[in-house]
Amino acid sequence: MNSLQTNNSGGSPTKFHLDKQGGKLMGVCAGLANYFKVDPMVVRLVFVAGFFLGFGSFALIYLGIGLLAD
Questions:
Q1: Is 25 left (phi over 0), alpha (psi -120 to 50) or beta?
Q2: Which of 43, 45, 54, 60 can pair with 29 through a Cys bridge, CB separation 3.0 to 4.6 Å?
Q3: Domain residue ranges of the chain, discontinuous segments joined by +
């Protein structure tokens, strides 16, 4: 069995995409929340905490995901 997640219907694997409809800035946190099936606010809080604790490195990660994804 492969390590990719499958959707509820048991069909093809789930693919990560930006969620610009449900997102605030670029849709990165909402897209990650959809992919991992968690609340978007949890992902946003992780990015904010990582921004302050990681000396801004999470801002670069966020921008990288936002520019490279979907």
A1: alpha
A2: 43
A3: 28-68
